[in-house]
Specification:
Helix content: 40-55%
Structural class: alpha+beta
Mean pLDDT: 83
Low-confidence stretches: 156-167
Number of strands: 5
Strand order of the largest sheet: 3-2-1-4-5
CATH superfamily of the largest domain: 5' to 3' exonuclease, C-terminal subdomain
Largest sheet: 5 strands, antiparallel
Distance between the termini: 13 Å
CATH class of the largest domain: Mainly Alpha
């Protein structure tokens, strides 16, 4: 499983761009292509979609955007074109609508029927509500941590160790929950959690965990 491609954007048009890496060019269909600029070096997250008639690679600015795309096309009647249309309206907007059970707002998006909008909300309301709750909790903790550092900058080494352990436990819990949402099995998740290296960037942790699972011989089909 290739999670992302890093390279230079050498061309783009209304719907797709071409990214070059080590002499090879890759054509990627992306939502909100205005976020990508020619001659820019970017990491782009990938999803390969294949059916009986074609094989197309889609690209995304963030891993969460890729997750939502994959969730959307898992709904019967929602194809990549519709999923891209949803993302063209903004990732955060789509997540907010799903988390709020607002299928009517979702159904206003081009190509998305009321029936499919209802099904999306039914299937993923809880998941994206939890995403928003986790984001809010993380923001609050960051504010508290910043305030604490400003009030007292003389924490001793033992307090620092305890704080780091607490952060690692919280991150491990969030990583476990995310891997569950992505459909990995408990034994795969537990294996990845024992192998990942600490990283402040949560998306990098997810990438690392998926690579570990994908490369493990015991999990290969």
């Amino acid at each position: 499983m290739q999670i992302y491609q890093y390279g230079k954007i050498v061309s783009k048009n209304k719907n797709y761009l071409i990214i070059e890496n080590q002499g090879s060019g890759y054509l990627l269909y992306v939502p909100r292509i205005d976020r990508f600029n020619t001659d820019e070096n970017r990491k782009i997250y990938l999803y390969e979609y294949e059916n009986d008639y074609s094989k197309i690679t889609y690209g995304f600015a963030s891993f969460r955007e890729r997750i939502l795309f994959e969730d959307l096309i898992s709904i019967q009647g929602v194809g990549p074109k519709t999923a891209i249309s949803v993302l063209n309206g903004g990732l955060q907007n789509a997540i907010n609508l799903i988390a709020a059970n607002d299928w009517k707002g979702l159904a206003k998006i081009p190509y998305l029927s009321e029936k499919n909008a209802k099904q999306i909300v039914f299937e993923f309301h809880g998941k994206y509500k939890k995403f928003l709750e986790n984001d809010k909790k993380q923001n609050q903790e960051n504010i508290l941590e910043t305030d604490s550092k400003e009030v007292d900058k003389t924490d001793d080494l033992n307090d620092e160790i305890l704080q780091n352990n607490s952060v690692e436990e919280k991150t491990s819990s969030e990583l476990e929950e995310t891997l569950k949402m992505l459909g990995f099995k408990p034994n795969q998740i537990n294996y990845a959690l024992t192998k990942v290296e600490p990283n402040e960037n949560f998306e990098n942790l997810i990438e690392q965990a998926i690579k570990i699972i994908s490369n493990a011989r015991e999990f290969r089909s």
